Every structure is written in C-alpha cells, then in structure tokens.
Amino acid sequence: MKTFTGYELSQDKPLSYQMIAQWIRRVGEILGLEYPTIPYNLRYNAANEFDRSGSSSPPITIALLLTPASADISESLRNLALDHANSNPFQKHYLGREVCADTWGILRRQKPQQALIRQACSVGHSISKRRPTDLTAEQIASVSTDPIIKRLEQDLRHHRPGSKKHMELRRRLRNEKQRLKRVLKQKIRDEWTARQAVDDIEGNCKRPAQKRLVEALAAPLGNTLEGQYRRRDNAIAAIVAYCMVEEGQTIRGARASVDSTRPTLMNEPPINSPQHTALMSTFIKTVTDRPRRCFICVGKALDLTSDDGAVEVLIREFYTPGDLSKHFRRKHLSNLREGDEIRCSICDLPLDHMEHLRNHALRIHGTQIECIAWYLHGQPASREIYTS
C-alpha cells in the first residue's frame, strides 16, 4: 500500500487475484513462453500428467490394443486428487486440446516415439528468449495515432478538468490505450512466432564463410607444386576466415633463401593494397614522426586475406597518436604476462623484455608508450626509462 514515504506491505489487505494473475502472465513472457501463463497452469499440467502416467511405456501389441492401458494413477484416483465428482470437468477444462500421442506410429503398429511427441507438445518447447516481451518506444507512440484514441482525446478537451464526465473519459482513454498496447504486443509476438522457424532454418544454412571453407577443403589436387601450395594456402585462409578464435603465436621456422620464382606470401601484401599502405605507415623516417596505426595489429592483418572482414578493423587509423598509445597499453600491454614471447611480426624481430619492446615501438614504429612502469607496476616511472 502506498504511504507518504513510498510503498509498504499491508498488514490486513491481501494481494488481489488480478494482480497475481498479471504477475504470473508477465513471468511467462519473460521466460519466453508462446502461450499466456495463468495461475491454473500448474494444476492443468498436474492433471494431464496424472492422466498420462504409465500409459506409454509398454510396446504396442495386438493384445495391448484390445485391453485398456495400464496407468500408475487410475481415473478414480485422479478425480479424487483433483477433487472432481466425475471426469467431466477434466475432459472439458483440464484435458489438453493437442493430441499428445504418436498416432501415426500406433497406426503402423510400431513403437510410438512418445518422448519426442511429448517434448514437441509441451509448453516448454515454445520457450525462446528472442520472443519479444515489450513494445519499443516507436510502437508505443503508434498507439496514439489510432482513430479511437484521437476521438477520445478530442472529447476530453471539451469537458472541464475534474468534472465527472472528464474523469470518465480519461479512464476510458487510459483503458483503451492499455488494450491497444496488449493487442499490438500480442500481434507482434504472433508474427514473430510465425516467421522464427523460417529464420532459424535460414540461419542454419551455409553462410559465405562456411561455403568457402567447404569448397577450399574439397578442392581437387593441383598438377604442379605451386598449385598444391595455392590449394593449401586457400584452405588455411578459409579456415582462418571461418574460425574467428585467435590461437597463440606459433614458432616460426627458418626463412628460406630469397628466390625470385617463389610465389608471393600472404604476409607480403601487394603494392598499393590497403594492407601494404598500412604496413608502410607503421615505420617512421624521423624521430618526431608519430604514426597512427598499431604495428602489432597491422602485423596480424598481414596473415589474413584481403577479403577478410577483420583486416579493416586491424589496419584502421586512430584519430590521434595519443589514442594509439592508449590502445597499445589497454589492448596489448595489459594482456602481456611474465614469460610470454615478445616479437614484432612486421620486423620478424624477437624482443627480449618489456623495455626492449618499448624502445623498439618508439624508435622503429614511433609508438610512444608513456608511463609504462606505472601502468604495469603501479609506481611512477624513472626518467632513465624515458631517455634510455
């Protein structure tokens, strides 16, 4: 009950049935149930479980079809548990209107798939967290454009505020808005239920990355060694595009001797390509140059194909060099742990320790990492660190 300071629990007034029913209905919407939930749902489910208990376990035989089905709870015991004088209330109000039985299996004299049928007919089978539960601001605003609402609002202006007619029209206006909102929400939920099966089927169909992966793995063998290398590289690129989880850094083998006839590697992008432009922009010509691309992210982009969606994000240019420094500290330095191998993939250079990484980032790539000692150790950095 409402008080001067807010709401308090009443000592003598119980909750109304309408309030409890509204809360239970709302709980069903939050759970994602298709059908409205009412206080009697638990009693309905219990009655149907009593009626179906023990009737689906034995296999279908000729003798079983000619004899009544055995059950754990008889019809009389069910009526006693439900406080019914006979079976008429159960058949009229409790018994589900969906035939929860494998009728096709019974007609073919096969063992019924009762577990599958009961799962498909159960209320919980319709649960989906994607089912809409509330109206958006635009949908709520569309209720005010209804002709009935406009007419009631116009009639409301013709009466004096506080009068009996004004209060009655205001109550009718409020009730009509609530009714239209309920109708609109139910319509949206019904439309979503009707098309969600099609959306799920289309979502399970092959996407471009999956189709590319299957084609690359099933590609025929090449006639030449270079063709086999291209087939292998295409398969690796397709797997990388399909599996977006990045694994740990692998140990590189010794580089082969330079050969003018060897094919171009993926980490050597073509000239004038976006990857090549990003690669060249990570190197500085003077000590005052401050690039705005992360050399570590660009190094990752060199291992991807040009049509990969992650390339554009990795080679992006930050707004200021300061934004690049923040990104470097938060994205890379914060994830660096003791004992990890430090390597610049662009220069193919192993780095011994954290200060080596800082000096390399500043002298070669122009990335200035300020307050690195404070960021990692929680203490001010000495002047020697900045000037070394």
Report on the structure:
The chain is an all-alpha fold. It is 52% helix and 2% strand. It is built from 19 helices and two strands. The protein has helices at residues 17-31, 41-52, 62-66, 75-82, 88-94, 103-107, 114-121, 137-143, 147-157, 164-204, 208-217, 225-242, 274-281, 295-301, 309-314, 321-332, 354-363, 372-377, 383-387, and strands spanning 342-344, 349-351. A two-stranded antiparallel sheet has the order 1-2. A hairpin with a 4-residue loop joins strand 1 (342-344) and strand 2 (349-351). The radius of gyration is 35 Å and the shape is extended. The termini are far apart. Residues 56-70, 251-266 and 371-388 have low confidence and may be disordered.
* Spatial separation of the terminal alpha carbons: 71 Å
Strand order of the largest sheet: 1-2
Main sheet makeup: 2 strands, antiparallel
Please provide the count of β strands.
2
**Structure classification:** mainly alpha
Return the string of H and E elements: HHHHHHHHHHHHHHHHEEHHH
Helical residue percent band: 40-55%
How much is the radius of gyration in Å? 35 Å
What is the molecular shape?
extended
How confident is the prediction overall: mean pLDDT?
A: 78
Taking pLDDT < 50 over at least 5 consecutive residues as the criterion, the unreliable ranges are: 56-70, 251-266, 371-388
Number of helices, counting only DSSP H or I runs of 4 residues or more:
19
Strand content: under 5%
